[in-house]
Please model this.
Amino acid sequence: MLNKKIDIQNSSLSFSDYFKLNIDIDELVEEFGYTYTRGKTFIKDINITQSSQNLKNQLDLVLTSIPLQSEISIREFLIAPILLDLLAQYDFKIKSEKSIYFTENLRGVLDYYIDNQKNSLVIIEAQNMDLISGVKQLAIELIALDKLIDDQSKDIYGIVTIGTNWIFVILDRKNHIIHESTKRYHLPEELDEIVSILGEILG
Model:
């Protein structure tokens, strides 16, 4: 049941505030006219390619030598190296700590906002290692982007991660559906799969 103490439409809420709200994600996105679904399918027919040996070596070193005890350390040492490796292969732009504003209840800072000619991608590092609440926050960020991006031909994707676990989400802009993949990808075992999906989105 929706938390009746919170009038979302008439509240001033940043993205990080949604992380803390005691409300189910499906009820939350319904407040903005969207539907939430979960399933196995994310991107069909992915060709798994080998990620660079340099990236693998770097991540192995990070995971064995650096205590990843904060959100900042996870972003700097696990997420950023993957994005920089992809940047050497594909043409896209990365903005860190990107502030966006649509309304008082659709505003805040995106950890990473990535954009190219055909797609937009948001990556957030989940607070307190809480992936479930992280997906909830991500859903609101995707809704805000959907309303701000005029080019309707662009697809909008999202990722929630705690560094070693990655969840992929896509926003179906035509039907206002936010779809979360039930597949959880793990570093370093599934680095090739993560990089391949990111390559499909950003390539």
